Hints:
The protein is mainly beta. The chain has a domain at 250-346. 5% of the residues lie in helices and 30% in strands. It contains five helices and 44 strands. The protein has a 19-stranded parallel sheet, with no helix packed on it. β40 (485-489), α5 (493-504) and β41 form a beta-alpha-beta unit. The longest helix is centred in the C-terminal third of the chain and has 12 residues, at 493-504. The chain is elongated.
Amino acid sequence: MIWDNQVAANSFPKLKSLCVDRCNKLVNIVCSFILRRLSSLERLDARRCGSLEVVFELQPLNHLGKNPIPLPLKELTVSELPKLKCVWDKELHYQVEFQGLRSISVSRCESLACLFPTSVAKDLMQLEVLKINACGIAKIIEKEDGLVPRFVFPKLTSLELNFLRELKCLYIGTHTSHWPALKSLKVYGCEKVEILASHLENKMRLDKQPLFLIEKVAFPSLEALNITSLDNIEMIWDNQVAANSFPKLKSLCVDRCNKLVNIVCSFILRRLSSLERLDARRCGSLEVVFELQPLNQLDRNPIALPLKELTVSELPKLKCVWDKELHCQVEFRGLCSISVSRCESLACLFPTSVAKDLILLEELKIDECGIAEIIEKEDGLVPRFVFPKLTSLELNYLRELKCLYIGTHTSDWPALKSLKVHGCEKVEILASHLENEMLPDKQPLFLIEKGAFPNLQELKLDLSKRMEIWHGHFHDGEFFCKLSLLKLRHLSQESSISTCRFVESLTNLEELVVCESYLEDPSSNEEAIEGTSREMKVILPFSRYIRHLQTLDVSHCDGLL
């Protein structure tokens, strides 16, 4: 024991901090007879005590007076207590108040099935931070008989629930909760959670109680929501969520939630009036990110979603990012950055109307997807796509990609500075003007309206041994006029002539990099010379015609000199 049960009444009057670590015979820390002595205690930290079963314990023979003790505790940390059954003893919590608690952290207490008695949960008027990690908790607040409880956490700004394998809900049974100040919510590895939040009046099965039963408005101050490794969660949002719910939500991250089939549905769209960042990763069943369900029609006024950053990655069943029924009623004009990777079932990225909305897009990166065209074809007039602020475009390992848009169209890239195309084996022509004649089955990746990439400075291409960089006549003026760096991979004899003509047309090229290339028939080149070992080696055919070239880098090019 730490305290003697006959300790004098005025003992420990100024004790502010109590830390107990690796005391393996202790079974409790604070007992009833010491409570009134700890009138200054602000911090309690209990760690790695192998036999500890309860932190605050009231022994039956030591009854307190009628007036509750207001313990001034502000910070409570409980960690690595394998036998801990409860933090607050049931007999204690009616006679002690914990209204000063601001921070609670509980971790690695495998035997702990519940954290708060009801009366303690109702006391937490000053609580700002709550973090629970790797415990046996099935519910956070213990159920008690009586009226329907209402839990309010008026100052809680940060809530983290990590690796609570048994957790199903905040409180078992009918109740309501209110989180007026909560800004950050993280739920990680809580495998039995099936519904994140719902309203009390919504009908649902008793075995599918949500983690949070909300009274009215859902999380009015929440700015960041991060849910990860919730393998049984089927829905994030309740379909009857109040109109002014989630008004400040800026960041939504969803990772490893393998039963989710969508993320943003029509009924939640108008609530997400502040959403700036959405990140969806490794959700094995996800089929669509933004979905409009047929029975939930929006009104005629389009929703201007303020989304700035969208990341979609490792979603093997994703069929579309934007549902066809949705994109006509929602605007995405604020998007600045889009990254899509490892979505094998995704055949197309943008509906036409979304592509036309991207007037602020600055970065677009697409990696390892099943995409055949970037913008989906729609019936109607010849579309014109303009990306006025896009500065960086990367297309990597898109094995099925052939073109930006199937059929007649034009595109304009006035701000593009960096373009990388790598591992896109079905692209036969990088770019051409609309008026240039070409075979029907050889549509270029980019059909340019006028002038080709007037601000492009870096061009990195995997030619896949056959890609033609530019098809048609070369134009002066804006034609690649600022291109200073050109990096080519897999240059072959088949593409060398057209590549040579393209390089010679570049008026400001300063650095040329050629790697992993081989000219299969060097004898056909006028510059061929015979090496000492009688092997024909070839000087790069365009190396002597580049007026401003400062750096020539050649590597891993068998047969080239």
